[in-house]
């Protein structure tokens, strides 16, 4: 064990003396068996550690208990000894700093860093924790260095997380002093804000309701994304040997799961309840094939119909549809290839790569979709001729009237306007893509085929989203299968047994 560290293990219980109520300590007879061996079902294991002395030379003895076995208690002592052992070649200041580090981790209950991380920091000349920047300073530095490497949407997300919550609530803490408790308090503040908004919206006072107009609550999934941003930034700090940070408290904050909501069909019963109460059963609602058909019938004369059709039939994402160029459309072979996306970032749109590696894919086209694309191509050619020199050529399947790329938000606006005119229950434009999956499932496709169509990176995402849709389509699929069998006699006309 390291020269500047010592420790020992022992066993204790909570039994007290019947006369004076004082702890029995090692005198409790239940701690050991008759043969002198430790009892396996009474008491728990403790350790006593003599940490390196403080800078002023004062001792610091620490005791911790609650371990199930002597091995567990000894393992903690060994971890501390390894850290001190790494520091000893670097001199007295390093040994004191490691003692401070261990003491801090024991007080907060946070796991100790590895000796490898500590060794790298000592090699870099860091032994004084006061060198650490504040959380705000690090977040600003880290984000500035990452900006150009991030997709536009991720950049916008990170930036808003840092600006709106992370720096205002955590920015003043020194980076190495940030704890799980500090971060948990920030998420508590988010939950309190949610409660305030919901209470105000439910108030009978119109002025109170007006005070929160346009304000949105933060969902469990959004809080998870805030934590992910902070965790990523702190992991980068741990990897930087110049910084005296060895632990990522964001990894240990407990939050609601923020699980992906299950897709539910707009069955007649759910539609009736929505009409009566205005409440959606789930954030992800999917039209039935009949409802999707009604929507497309209302949309058929709209200038953006080709994109709405492709999303509904072939499950394209909004950005994939808006960014689809004609050179990735093969009408002769009835297929399209997804190689790019036109993504909305705030109030602007920019071209980028597909969302993930799985998103770049070849999608087979049915005859109806091929006919729609063929007709749309001729209409677009007529618009190009009519516009003459005013036409702005971008080679995209669907554009603004002068050839400019279509703003993705305009497609969403058109979708909602058409759905309202068709008096359909509410879904998002993205849920029209879910409808394409529903159509495939109803036609008998398996989840692997649906995953490949939608470009999900994992079949687990597909399964999580559509497991609730499958049972609801089971009866419809069964009826479709039964209708294939030709029958000359109706079952109800058969003679009774």
What brief labels describe this structure?
mainly alpha, DNA polymerase, domain 1, three-stranded antiparallel beta sheet, 18 helices, elongated, hpI Integrase, Chain A, DNA recombination, DNA-binding, 497 residues, 3 domains, DNA_brk_join_enz, disordered C terminus
Protein architecture, described:
With 497 residues, the protein is mostly helical. The protein has 18 helices and ten strands. It has helices at 70-87, 92-108, 115-123, 135-146, 152-170, 180-201, 206-211, 220-239, 268-277, 289-299, 305-314, 318-322, 367-387, 408-421, 429-442, 447-454, 459-466, 469-484, and strands spanning 6-12, 44-51, 60-67, 264-265, 285-286, 329-330, 335-337, 341-345, 348-352, 362-364. The strands form four sheets. Strands 1-2-3 form a three-stranded antiparallel beta sheet. A three-stranded antiparallel beta sheet has the order 6-7-10, with no helix packed on it. A two-stranded parallel ribbon has the order 4-5. It is elongated and about 95 Å long. Mean pLDDT is 83; it is low at 489-497.
